[in-house]
Specification:
By secondary structure, the chain is mainly β. The chain has one domain: SH3 type barrels (Roll), CATH 2.30.30. The chain contains one helix and six strands. Strands 1, 2, 3, 4, 5 and 6 form a six-stranded antiparallel beta sheet that branches.
């Protein structure tokens, strides 16, 4: 899909000049940079395609800026992949069984 207008909070695919493909939620289309949230890179594994951390040695809990000069293509991520990205990066809250025991009906 050709991107005519950037929509913040949508999941985008960015192709970098290094050849990496990043999937991330776009937070801001800044002046000279894209601010992205929880970027994952598309990797090929023995089991097929997978999304892995963009930076393995960094704790990315917030946003990072990617210079626009490092991006050669930007497009909305197709729906199935965007759904997998959202599911994989969502903050899950697991209830404590001692404070919220399951109810048996």
């Amino acid at each position: 899909m050709i991107v005519e207008k950037i929509k913040p909070d949508e999941v985008y695919s960015l192709k970098l000049v290094t050849g990496e493909e990043i999937v991330a939620r776009l937070v801001e289309d800044g002046n000279g940079y894209y601010k992205i949230f929880k970027p994952l890179v598309l990797s090929v594994t023995a089991q097929g395609a997978a999304m892995t951390p963009f930076l393995f040695t960094a704790e990315i809990e917030g946003n990072i800026n990617v210079p626009k000069t490092a991006v050669i293509a930007l497009a909305l991520t197709e729906k199935q992949t965007a759904g997998q990205y959202t599911k994989g990066t969502a903050n899950l809250t697991i209830s404590n069984p001692t404070t919220n025991p399951p109810r048996i009906i």
